[in-house]
Amino acid sequence: MRSGDVLARMVVPSLKLQDLIEEIRGAKTQAQEREVIQKECAQIRASFRDGDPLQRHRQLAKLLYVHMLGYPAHFGQMECLKLIASPRFTDKRVGYLGAMLLLDERHDAHLLITNSIKNDLSQGIQPVQGLALCTLSTMGSAEMCRDLATEVEKLLLQPSPYVRKKAVLTAVHMIRKDPELSSVFLPPCAKLLHERHHGILLGTTTLITELCERNPAALRHFRKVVPQLVQILRTLVTTGYSTEHSICGVSDPFLQVQILRLLRILGRNHEESSEAMNDLLAQVATNTDTSRNAGNAVLLETVLTIMDIHSAAGLRVLAVNILGRFLLNNDKNIRYVALTSLLRLVQSDHNAVQRHRSTVVECLQETDASLSRRALELSLALVNSSNVRAMMQELQAFLESCPPDLRADCASGILLAAERFAPSKRWHIDTILHVLTTAGTHVRDDAVANLTQLIGEAQELHAYSVRRLYSALAEDISQQPLAQVAAWCIGEYGDLLLEGNCEEIEPFRVEEEEVLALLEKLLQSHLSLPATRGYAITALMKLSTRLRGDNNRIRQVVSIYGSCVDIELQQRAVEYNVLFQKYDHMRAAILEKMPLVDRSDSQVVEERKENKAGAQLLEAAAPVPTEPQAAKLLDLLDLLDDTPGHAQHLPPLAPSPGEALVHLLDLPCVPPPPAPIPSLRVFERDGVQLDLSFVRPLETPGLLLVTATTTNSSKEDATHFICQAAVPKSFQMQLQAPSGDTIPAQGGLPVTQLFRILNPNKATLRLKLRLTYNHFGQPVQEIFEVDNLPVETWQ
């Protein structure tokens, strides 16, 4: 009985496609579904081996359904080729469908259907030509496109609109695969623009757009047809093109959008073409219905076109007003698009965008994170010297309630805007204090140094600043940047804090014991970072010369930290103890108030300190063993961690007798300048360019100083710019902090960053760079290797 059941199962015929679909959908578990599919795939394989031509297309249709469910179906690739070569239309239809689903450029088998497609294109059967063109436009490789370009060009002028439409779309795919085929499709495009068929005209506009974007010669050629495109669009706007293609009362919005995109490309950086379309753009902007989404899409493309071409000033104001109306729309997508577009316009049309400042500020309260982020970026871009007070109030209010992922960007933006447009030093200090109090843990690393420099320069505000900081620290010691600035300020100006003669704030009495207790609390708090404790113990030490009382309490606190686990804090405490015990007579002079330091001078001093430290490191450096060639260049993720190699610098050389004689005679001793190393451009995208310049000091043959200079010639700033670099293991490198994280548009001040690379073995130098920034409202990340550095950089 069981053997009869097995024999009966073996002779059961294969399921039809409809029955297979029903059985798969009826499976209650994933295991049952796999069992059904495995059994049917076995029968499909058996049918393919039998070679029954009448069942081949049915079996392949079932296999394609199995493939759509995510199961492997690669064994049906050769059957697709057999069906395509068949003279029967039913076979060709399934064969071409299978080729589109199962074949791509990664499989060499796709090249085997080139001859079959060529023969089918040459036949006069329109359905077969349509199948071949659809397949070619879906999976055709560059090699296939070059072989079949002539056949597709002939079909562009066929009398059948059905074939011409598919041939145009196939030509678009060919241009994207191989831009060198532009010369083949240039002549037919001018004739196709006279078509009345919607599909052909839409496809032709798309084809011309692709040609212009990839070929400068084509761009110059098609600028001649701008009047014709203007006339087509004017007809669409005024009289309509085809009622069957109208959507919500907007005449053929898809064709309007595509023509506007093409006009934007043709009018960019071309005065004559821009003038030809200015009147039309004004007509489209004023006559398009905005109550429907289709009309909003056309208006957005109109605005983008006005922004990119040489349009009149009144037209640009009209475009900004349209975006302002978009900000009042209930649709979040439309509001996001409006914010992104206004962010692009704020550099070139700042005054026009300023009119919508209140609406932009209201968008900060959006619950959608992407909308509030865009509104924050635009609000920061709208800050200038005339509205800085009002805008800072709004941004500070937003900082108190914004989501945690936006707090760092908001705090950094407020600090940068305050530094740039501060109306007074007191206002500047108050603004920074408010940011440190509200979101101190989210500010940039240089916020502490900038505020201490600002307070030090404002001598008339020392008493005001120290009292404000003392009050803020007494209320909250968890904000570490605030605690560091407050500790520094109390240490420097503690005597002013105790005098209590500040007229600018409400008077309050502060005792010496309260100040010392607050600093001790800061030292003992588990929330304090090691750097904060360093500030606090230094402040205590400085107060020993500023307070009138006994210093025994300060001595006891300092001596306790002489055995601290933190090495930096322990070293400070030990040195301060020695100062109390052996050099007490010098303590007052050593702990005087910090002198004012000019910003430019401080950078020079910092460079000298780094050079001196690097020289000491180089003296103690041992030779680095040579790594195998395969392991020289590490993966970027390994190299760009938080512990980059230390910079190495050459120690100063002892002067030779000749040089000593020159110094005795007070004559200048200038070594001969080294041969200049040519600069190298390593990156360029959308106007953002990165150039590397090189210097090798004569005293340090193994040291290379690389200056990365990033410029931006586009119309929009590149923000949140970060440049990271990696070198092989046999090198040692230190990345200096960049000069900024925003690259100003239109050739503004460049962002520079210094790389110090030590190459003791004089090995071939290679760099791997990672650039991340935001440009035109989109995040950009580029990782690339620079292996064509000049020979002078390492030999």
From TrEMBL:
Domain GAE: where?
A: 675-790
Keyword annotations for this protein? Cytoplasmic vesicle, Golgi apparatus, Membrane, Protein transport, Transport
Task: Give GO terms for biological process.
Answer: intracellular protein transport; vesicle-mediated transport
**Which first-to-last residue range defines the signal peptide?**
none
Return the SUPFAM superfamilies for the record.
Answer: ARM repeat, Clathrin adaptor appendage domain
Q: Which InterPro entries match?
A: Adaptor_Complx_Large_Subunit, AP1_complex_gsu, ARM-like, ARM-type_fold, Clathrin/coatomer_adapt-like_N, Clathrin_a/b/g-adaptin_app_Ig, Clathrin_app_Ig-like_sf, GAE_dom
- PROSITE patterns under this entry? GAE
Instruction: Spell out the GO cellular component terms annotated for this protein, sorted alphabetically and separated by semicolons.
Output: AP-1 adaptor complex
The membrane topology of this protein is:
Peripheral membrane protein
A family per Pfam? Alpha_adaptinC2
Q: What subcellular compartments does it reside in?
A: Cytoplasmic vesicle membrane; Endomembrane system; Golgi apparatus
Q: Which family does it belong to?
A: Belongs to the adaptor complexes large subunit family.
Q: What is this protein called?
A: AP-1 complex subunit gamma
State the organism of origin: Cricetulus griseus
The major lineage groups are: Eukaryota, Metazoa, Chordata, Craniata, Vertebrata
Gene from which this protein is expressed: Ap1g2
